[in-house]
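At this stage, I wrote out one protein, both as residues and as discrete backbone shape codes, and that material follows here.
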Amino acid sequence: MTTPDFQRARSPEAKLLREAAILDAARRLGSERGIREVTLTDIASAVDMHKSAMLRYFETREEIFLRLTAEGWQDWAPALAARVRAVARPDADAVDIADAVADAFASTLAERGTFCDLLAQTPLNLERNVSVEKVREFKLTTRDGLGQIVPAVRAALPVLTEQDGVDLVAAATSMAGTFHQIATPGPEVAALYRSDPRLSHALVEVEPRLARILGAMLRGMLGQAGR
């Protein structure tokens, strides 16, 4: 049953508070269980609402998590851009800077596990059960993120092109989402991997693997540019 407090959410301010409560509950449940395991009913129960009442705030479960992904971009992009700007040094070797940039990408993503989970889910289903307008809003948020990250990368490594920067972000976010899924299997599968030495290759640490691959990618970009 919907609680009286939620029934009285008539003003714009009250509705914004309800939206925030729904997003907070979805974020918490997603962090605890994994995004795939959280249903609209779970979120509704967490905020003491009937599932049908939530449709006044969000079109679908996917819209809720797409909003959280957008918030993840708004948190990650400035944090990463600041880290990348901090490693830019005119007198440093370009390869060393490339490795430092790769480390900045890897560490800022690895420390945001729920964001990585959302990144994996976004193209698979979050963008597929919402309105076109909601997809547009989300893509404009990612565009804003690129507008912060790519200039910082190019300031650190001026030889890179705009497209190089875009490709780097695309590779980093795609791999972070995938590696997070591999690194967080269910308990039974995780126990299997630990119990059989032949399956050790299935154990993934997100940050070091992402740093190695992105570092190699950046060094390849530098090589193509004649460095």
